[in-house]
Amino acid sequence: MEQEAFEEYSRAFVRALAAFDNVVGVVGSTADPRIRDFWSDHDFAVVLRDGDPFQFLDDVSWMPEAEKIIASGRHGGIYNVAVYNDGHKVEYLVCNKAAAGSITVTKFLILLDRSGVSPRIEQARMLTSARQQAINEEACDPINLAIVVLTAGQRGELVNATGLLAVAADMALKMLATTQSWELTDPLDPRRRLEHLRPDVAKELADILTRSPDDAAQRLLKLADTTIRPKTSTWDWSGFDRVLRTLSPQANGRAITSGGS
């Protein structure tokens, strides 16, 4: 969507909600033009003073150009997503003011504030950041990476292995971001816009994830060993090596190996 059309839809969305007295805030996570591109969808948070959120979640007739919406679907309890006939997707959550301080928020722009919504959204952003920091620190433990990769190779289940290897790839990506001091564009989705941020890393991970589980596992462990380990001298890799020596393929007849000692 072109930038002006994006802005116009955002304004129309806010105007539609401003007609309801119980709507006290509208927040846009993609409202800042610095963090979106041509393929960005609209993401909003709608904050109510009180009242029933389902009037906005179960009914999309209030939305701009509602006659062009071809489908909508609820998810996650407080979220709804609507798709227009040109493929434009609009996702939004609805909560009351009391709950606004605990929703998941990374980057945001306040589009409507009738009742002190901004401080609650900033509180939500800080809480989200703290949760993600804790998750990222856990993901940056080499032991956890080794366990996830080896589990993917042990069960002999292709679909399960594929899912576990995708998790391991995300862990490796967060480890790389930490060791090389580059910022992920979306803390909630480390693969988001990776081709623009680090095309070399994106190419390598894409190649890994298209291979067989055994080959992908081996390459992920090699990536950890040759690219991440040398830059993390302060990390404890002894557990990583113990896991590989104990659970590795020599004992299980598989071909997962690591260059670690």
Write the layout of secondary structure elements.
Elements: H1 3-18, E1 23-28, E2 42-48, H2 54-57, E3 69-75, E4 79-84, E5 89-96, E6 109-113, H3 117-139, H4 142-154, H5 158-180, H6 194-197, H7 199-209, H8 213-228, H9 238-247
Parallel strand pairs: 2-5
Antiparallel strand pairs: 1-2, 1-6, 3-4, 4-5
How does this structure look, described?
With 261 residues, this protein is an alpha+beta fold. It has 2 domains: 3-131, Beta Polymerase, domain 2, CATH 3.30.460.10; 140-247, no CATH class. Helix content is 46%, strand content 15%. The chain has helices spanning 3-18, 54-57, 117-139, 142-154, 158-180, 194-197, 199-209, 213-228, 238-247; strands at residues 23-28, 42-48, 69-75, 79-84, 89-96, 109-113. A 6-stranded mixed sheet has the order 3-4-5-2-1-6, sandwiched between helices. The protein is elongated. Mean pLDDT is 83; it is low at 253-261.
Key features of this structure:
6 strands; single chain; six-stranded mixed beta sheet; alpha+beta; 261 residues; Beta Polymerase, domain 2
Structural class: alpha+beta
CATH homologous superfamily heading of the largest domain: Beta Polymerase, domain 2
Please identify, by name, the CATH architecture of the largest domain: 2-Layer Sandwich
Assign the CATH class of the largest domain. Answer: Alpha Beta
What is the alpha-carbon Rg in Å? 22 Å
